[in-house]
Amino acid sequence: MSARSKWLDVVRSPLGATALGLVILVALAAVFAPLIWGPQAEQVDPTAITQGPSAAHLLGTDSLGRDVLARVMVATQLSIILAVLAVIIGVVAGTLLGTAPSVLPRWAGRFIAGVVNIAVAFPGLLLALFFAVIFGVGTTGAVLAIGFAMAPGFARLTQTLSAGIAGRDFIAAARVAGVSRIRILIRHILPNIGEPLVVNATVGAGSALLAFAGLSFLGLGVQVPAYDWGRLLGEGLNRIYLNPAAAIGPAVAVVVAGLAFNMLGETAASVIGGRSARRRGRLPLTALSSAPVHAQAAGDEVVLLVDDLRVSFPGPDGWITPVRGVSFTISRGEAIGVVGESGSGKSLTALAVAQLIERPGRISAGQLEFCGTPLQEASERSVRHLLGTSMAMVFQDPMTSFNPTRRIGSQLAEAASEHQGITRRAAMDRAIDRLQAVRVPAAERRAKQYPHEFSGGMRQRAMIAMGLMNHPRLIIADEPTTALDVTVQRQVLQLLAGVRRDTDAAILLISHDIAVIAQTCDRVLVMYAGRIVEDLPAAHLHSHARHPYTRALLDVVPELDTDRSTPLKMIPGRPPAPGAFPVGCAFAARCPLATELCRERDPELVDDASGHRVACWHPVDGDQPAADAAIPAVTSALPIAQHEGATR
Fold this sequence. Notes:
Distance between the termini: 35 Å
CATH architecture of the largest domain: Orthogonal Bundle
Number of strands: 13
Radius of gyration: 33 Å
CATH class of the largest domain: Mainly Alpha
């Protein structure tokens, strides 16, 4: 259903029809009332002072004999204009305050967030009175007072919405591409939070109208000779026992206009909410030497060097370290696969390498070098440029990998224009060329389409094309085939292999599918509980895997000739939570070979001098077939579906 059809359906509903009718009524009164009733509202009649309702004056007259009804109608224009101006000020100021922590230094962002949190705790009308004292009595002071009183609420809303968008994959992709914070804010975050801000601004207009009426009633708002509904209400209340209609008229006007704004906001929310719900041949194997990890791949160009990498986050009882002591290297043209269950630290390791761990998370390492540059010591600007030009990331969810409000071509072109200094036209031409390189049909037409117009496989191809906009030396593919059917999975994996072959780029492939890793990579890193427990050539995975956990992962993969009458084999128990790693080997509680030594001491990752590293006190015989050494099936264990649904 199109947005136009959705609007028509909502307008036909009782709520939508009432909201539309009230909005039209208020708009017509604001535009035409001064033209129709303007002279009558200003006509002074000494013979008709403070009269009650009559055929000539339906709401009576004021102290100068002016018609109250005419003045109520004429006051519509000024009342609506002032409320809209206050809302605009509140939205603009609130958006600036809400997005400031995203672009300012951390200390300044935390200070602004603290001020906003304090301001939100006070009632809006109390803040309006406070600002009215600061800005002074009068129309201008009242507009500024109400606008700034509304700003904290919009700032809090903007912070919340921005935090939800900032965690999306397309924001991470923009950071990897080296896009500046301000540009990410303007091009990616604000367009995605605009709709709820508009809805809340519409609802907020009703509150602003009421606040304005309150200030004018107290004598702090509109001053004579101008008048709005609040001023008329104050004048009517002074004579409420003589002529109640003089007070009821402006009060009804405030209520009707407030309902119009609030119901319009509810109508827009139902339309936008419905629309949002809908959007919703390989290179030779590279053998490792027996040297320490930082000296591995000698003689080859080391693209990525990771030594003793740790990622920590604050917890209620201290720091939690879900990635603890990961070490490996990747050479030019090499493909390394990372496998493991949910929570093993695979994706956190990749995000740490790409410098995408947000504060308060911490990254520490003995060495963390990319293309010879120490990432922990280099300046933020140089790291951003290096990662933007030499590293590409392909995320696991193709739907969230792109900004839904921008065309595919412009998102690809942004990566090139940001770092290569080329014109917009040249960047778009390169985007079309890269789409053609990843075999997207009708690339020129497709570049003008939005992400929702692409299928899942095409979005993943476009994501790979984005990584190729510059000249990447490392491609990090974080479960790139998740949620894709097997045919598209094969196409995406073949495409990555082709890119690797054509560009000599290294690939770090993260997957929960150990069979895919074995078929597409040169080396396999098996992770468990934040550590690498085995590192071996992919060609030796089925025949020489020595860690019981690796053997268990191999054994739970069903084969075509598996006996259907027997239950599927499973790994008993659950992986330990990141904040509750046990003493000793983390796999000991699930391992049938575990001894007291395993429960007391954590084994080191030891190289057997043949390029095979394993962290186990009782490694399995490397020549024993996997099926013979795997963990036996247990009916109370986790199902294989839960094992293969690994997250990060």
